[in-house]
Amino acid sequence: MGFVSSTVWETENSRPMRSESSLQPVHSPIPAPATVEILGVPLALTDYDEMLDWIDAMIASDERGYLCACNVHAVMASQEDPELRAALVGSSFNVPDGQPLVWAINSLGHVLPNRVYGPELMSRSCARAAERGHRFYLYGGRNQGALVQLALNLRRRHPGVKIVGGYSPPHRPLTEEERLAIAAEINRSHADVVWAGIGVPKQEKWMAQMRPDLRAPVLAGVGAAFDFHAGLVPQAPNWIQEAGLEWAYRLAHEPRRLWRPYLRYNPRFMTAFAKQLSGQRQQGSNRF
After folding, report:
1. Which residues pair with 37 in a beta bridge?
2. Cα gap 29→55, rounded to integer Å
3. Please, are residues 160 and 131 in contact by the beta-carbon 8 Å criterion?
């Protein structure tokens, strides 16, 4: 399977194993934020603190769910990929990771001050976990070396954070044997949160598929967060992010990898959302 050597990770075999009576996701009674649909994808009207509190509550109650950091790429890819769409609709939450989604939500009449950016959510969660003892598993990364570097960087920035395992999967679909092996490996780690960083749409589909087999209360798909925190790709300055131009910054740094999805999905999103917005305004005017 190519798991990273266990010497890289913390081991705490005294941790009690979670119950094996049911690995099925539990519909949580934990208060959920309101959602709004953008092109049929439900997006949570939430913020970092609420999502961190939700993660804490899921761990404390030993319930199970998964969240997706959702950007324009994910929303538009789901329009033509039924499996991805089902994964997004079936998630616990889709947080608006991209600034254009925040603008879209607000243009529909809601008030959402800021996005919930996947890399930032992961960083804040690491800081909180260092204080509260939550255990993290890392699934993703460009290769095993990048995954080890990610773990080292997170430990340097958040002393005390418990990273108890990691695996960088092959760039192909897993065999059934591999899928069962990775599920067993993650369950043996006693992780509280599994961070998935294998990109859209792989990570969303993987979480939806693996959720019934994993004991970790929370799975979280955060895309490029692994590359950013490992130091492989630079993050855009804050002013570029706030201006909604992060896509241009990333395109300038990774043109060969990103030009196709950006060229394909960004213009389509603008056109499709303009139709949704126009339709909602037309419905509103017809009420009077």
Report:
1. 42
2. 13
3. yes
Question: Rounded to whole angstroms, how far apart are CA atoms 197 and 204?
Answer: 10
Residue 19 lies in a domain: no
What whole-number distance in Å separates Cα of residue 178 and Cα of residue 15?
25
Phi then psi for residue 43, to 5 deg, are -120, 135
Task: Report the C-alpha gap between 218 and 51 in whole angstroms.
Answer: 11
10 within some domain: no
Cβ atoms 250, 257 nearer than 8 A: no
Domain that holds residue 128: 24-282
Listed in sequence order, the residues at least 6 apart from 131 whose beta carbon sits closer than 8 Å to its beta carbon are 160
Q: How far is CA 288 from the centre of its chain?
A: 41
pLDDT in tens, 217-241: 999 999 899 999 999 988 778 888 7
Residues paired with 41 in a beta bridge: 38
Residues 6+ apart with CB under 8 A from 151: 8, 9, 138, 163, 166
CB atoms closer than 10 angstroms to residue 257: 12
| Structural domain contains residue 122 | yes
Going by their DSSP bridges, the two strands 65-70 and 41-44 should be labelled as unpaired
Distance CA 135, CA 169 (A): 20
- The reported pLDDT for the residue numbered 54 is 97
Cβ atoms of residues 93 and 27 within 8 Å: no
Residue 212 CB neighbours (<10 A): 12
Per residue in 177-233, pLDDT tens? 999 999 999 999 999 999 999 999 999 999 999 999 999 999 999 989 999 999 998
Q: Has residue 287 been placed in a domain?
A: no
β-pairing, 193-197 vs 218-221, is parallel
* Total tally of structural domains belonging to the chain: 1
Q: Report how far residue 41's alpha carbon sits from residue 17's, in angstroms, rounded to the nearest whole number.
A: 35
Q: Give SS3 for 192.
A: coil
Tokens of 45: 């009207």
